[in-house]
Structure prediction request, 233 residues.
Amino acid sequence: MKRIHYVQHVPFETPAYICELAQARGDTVTKSLLFEKVEFPPVSEFDSLVIMGGPMGVYQEKEYGWLVEEKSFIEKAIAGGKSVLGICLGAQLIADVLGGRVFPGGQREIGWFPVKLTPEAGTVDLFKDMPPEFTAFHWHGDTFDLPPGSQWIASSEAYKNQCFIYDNRVLALQFHLEIKKESVEALVRNCKDEMTEGKWIQGEKEILEGINRYIGTANGLMEKIYDRLFDSH
Prediction:
């Protein structure tokens, strides 16, 4: 039995399928809901950490004062040898903590778009036998430089750096594999103002139609990552 702790920044970006996986495996799940109360447990109380997404930027510490405390918490988890998964904002926070630059990308990437694994991904056990290209769900406008010591894992046409791994146990995913139908609908509902015209911005109809087409593959990849990342540490 594994002890999973997750950090959630806004009510509408939940761990979704990750919680289903934990329940199916008999793993325990605890949480820090920063939109309710900024409180983090000692790192000794969990084995693996999941950091969710959110519309804020890692550099907005004046607007979101808890970012300082959260970054310190993530640093402690990494230094404590925990397996860590960051998704979207969570990936950007990991990049920042490890010394990578996080910055506005100049364009938003919103919707279902292909992700390609790098040749380097083939040398990482976590990604063995995964498809070289798959369609994932995206909703972001920030990006990051790869932190020192990390391995570049994936890219998309819109953004070069979509995924990296550090020390074989700290994984940053700019895209979403954990989403469920309700997750996608919630993002559309709460962040509709970001769905402006753009090369890499799909409309509501296209996004919702993509759920049935792509979500099974996305969740299947999430399951592999869950088992390999969290079981190995």
